[in-house]
Amino acid sequence: KSEMVTENNVMTQLRVLDLSGNNLSGEAFEESLVHAVNVGCGHLCDLNIGGKGTLISKEYSENLCKALEQNSILHFLRLEGATHGLTSDEILSIERSLFRNREEFFVRQNEKASSFNAFLSSTRTHPSNASCSSIDLESYNGIDEDKDVNSHIGADENKLGLSVLFSIPLAYHSPGGKVRALDTLSYKQEQDHLWTSFAGAQKNIDLRFGFATTETLRAEISNKCIAIHYTGHGSPEFLLFENGRGGVQFVSVKKLTSLLCAGTSGECGVEFVFVSACHSELVGQAFIKAGVKHVVCVKVLDRVLDRSAQQFSRVFYQHLANGYTVQDCFEIAKETVVEESSKFLLLPDNIDHQVPIFENAKPSEWTPIADPARVYGYGPSSTRLWKAPPPPAVPSVFVGRNVEIYFTLNSILGNTHIATLWGEEGVGKSTVARAVANYAYERKLFRDGVLYLRMDKVNSVSMLLRRLLQAVNRSCVSADVDLNFQFSPRSRAEEDTLMESQVESLAEILRYRNSLIVLDHCDSLAENTSSAAEFELFLGRLKDEVHGVHILITSRVSMYSGRFPGFPVKSLEIQRLRPRDGAMLFVRMCPHSRGRADLQVPGLKNASPPVVDPMGTNEEEYENGEDEMLRYDMLTSLSEDSRLRITGNIPKKIAALAYTISATDYHRLIYECQNVVGNVNSMLS
Known about the structure:
With 685 residues, the protein is α/β, with parallel strands linked by helices.
């Protein structure tokens, strides 16, 4: 009730107060509200007065804004659903005040605990630490400033945890200087398997997911994580981490050892590590040198199929979460991957591994993942300036575009804040844009997330502006900001005045944002000469006033290449797929496909598609710098079939062929190609 707000003996003791849904209104409530956010009221950090019944008059809306600006320590003010008289300028002012209060609070705490530095850096946008944070702002609402901050960082002290780090870089620079794609691991499937394994155990175990950078690994060690799982690419002497921009950071065994032991007495404090990567034995030894007691890895000369590694880890963690010892889990998991069981190692050899990692975990109720953004480090929507939904998902079958995604991402994150993707119809421009948006969203490369808009049938800047304003209006967290101008202009002068007002309003809302805006299918704008010129002026004006927003545009024709006034623009053409990638897409999309079995030749071990060593040791297998393997295999044979050649390696046409070919014709095609590959390799041998 509103009377509760006036009770000083209550307010001086509260950190969080939730009065939502209480139909709060009237002068007494409004005076109490202004008093509640005043610093003299106590240590209130989080106040929720939302709900359809809450009413704040225009006069007290202004007083509330002034109180927050001048004399408040409030961190979060929640008004969702409430009726109020706040203008868009006042909302921006309140957001800045709340953010300032949170930042000042964290700075004070940083003076007491140096380990808080990792969290402070994670609240700012920087590519190098974009994937580091597994902590959200809201978890700090109730911290007592006089207590040790270390006791509040991360999970509950009594809660055991496993940190799962995925390393999914897009591409690498070969010794010859070319940018080459890396195989994409199906990490989301592994994430689901791990979540299911721990949820089935129903234990009080903190399962966290993130992306593997050296900063993330170091942060987990500093936060006293007892168990770490790494999934990614490996080599005999290196472990591959993400570099924060879609590329690879090669971490040698020596450097990894130094990274793990930095700031410790020689032991990093981690009890268990699972390195799910090929050739990871020497990397496992590095973890042993850093004091890790139990390490699961793969023999130095062996590769492991992605599906085998996932099966092994799923069974392993099912039993580990239920209190089994590391040794027992290892032996049970090996039985499920009989053909490759000898490749897995449990190190070191000279100690007893009959030790449970989660033996003391207490029973606890688990719920499914409700918000994927929380898995990757985004806090609740109230801690961000956007609450826009995640970008559209990338198709489940998506091959051959890692290099394009890498170049686009680096263009946007670098000096080029505006990039355009163009190419013929059906070549996959929108899919690449979605992939870029999802990659950035999952790794928090932009503090305020991603805003994805389809521009179908938008043929003028005025229509584009209305769509942007509507999207920003829906995505603004603090309140229902009405940015839609309701009157219809009746003259050119009125239309110009309206557009100018809309541009100013949009620029003001975006001014303090750091986000990626994707404008997909801008074909109508690009193909109209006058609209394209007007669009260029609009983007130049927007970027001139808003420096934190990055823009990605897709269209059938090249729109801009060069510079807007003061801003470089990158134009990237999306080419047709390589023939081998086109063949792979066809096999994976066809409903009659048997998967990898269709790319193998009975009795011929080397006919399956080869895998390029990320360290470049297979560089000599490329001919004249082209990305075609010399060895004749199933993908090469399929790509030479007349039906696939007719598609021109355009993804849209390949998909149409895959879904229309009959089962009889498909299996006959596979059989014929297998015979051709077998005959060719027999002659070559």
